[in-house]
Amino acid sequence: MGFDGLRVLALESRRATEMAVLVEKNGGVATVAPSMREVPMEDNPAAFAFFDRLRAGEFDLVILLTGVGARALDKVLATRWPEGALASELRKRPVVARGPKPMAVLREWNVPAAAMAPEPNTWRELMQVMRGRTERRIAVQEYGKSNLALLAALRETGAEVTPVPVYQWALPEDTAPLRAAARGIAAGAFDVVLLTTSIQVTHLLQVAAEEGVDVLPALRRMVIGSIGPTTSEALDEIGLKADMEPSHPKMGILVKEAGEQAAGILEAKQ
After folding, report:
1. SS in 3 state form for the chain?
2. Could you tell me which CATH class the domain 43-169 is placed in?
3. Is the domain covering 7-35+171-269 a CATH 3.40.50.300 domain?
4. Residue 15 has pLDDT above 80, yes or no
5. In the chain, at which end, N or C, are there fewer CB atoms within 10 A of the end residue's CB?
């Protein structure tokens, strides 16, 4: 059933406990090593400048890339403007959501969405729903790091694009579990690794380098489960290949379907 006793490493942070439970329920031996934390950019002049321009009517359309980022932006702006000021301004112009999480925030704020990118909710699907739109002054709420491919694709349509940084990703305050995981990967202690965001790849390699271990050879022998195309692209950039993506980019589906496929993938790699 499921992983059938395979040793499964996950680098999930926000939902680490839930991930461990899911892996165990699907027959795996779970190790969860949190790999990141979101650090709000409280002193964020770019966010304040964005809102000044938004109030002045200088943007025709706003794109929200993440629910967490949208809430963080609202929190930062609330240090200077009344609660609900961002939602009030967003109601005055089209807003496009990258996926269901920013869409849920818009519903909570009573802000109509002009469009939502379909699954797997990457920048490519976002560009599909932007095709044919005539708005040319576009603000993009970012998350962690700039999506340069998205910004370039928008600019290729003739749009004037303003990225709005909201928070950045840092290593967890306690890096001991992630460092132990890096050493464990290099030593062959795991059969499967599950990745739910691209920054997990970056931080794993950073910590592995600091520990003086090379995890890439061992990762190539393991089953690599990726939540979706964006994470898979991050793997491609370092010479790795995702062995599977779930039929829908959800954590529970990733764990379930990785459990169903892992034994066969491992056998093919031997």
Report:
1. CCCCCCEEEECCCCCHHHHHHHHHHCCCEEEECCCCEEEECCCCHHHHHHHHHHHCCCCCEEEECCHHHHHHHHHHHCCCCCCCHHHHHHCCCCEEECCHHHHHHHHHCCCCCCEECCCCCCHHHHHHHHCCCCCCEEEEECECECCHHHHHHHHHCCCEEEEECCEEEECCCCCHHHHHHHHHHHCCCCCEEEECCHHHHHHHHHHHHHHCCCCHHHHHHCEEEECCHHHHHHHHHCCCCCCECCCCCCHHHHHHHHHHHHHHHHHHHC
2. alpha beta
3. no
4. yes
5. C
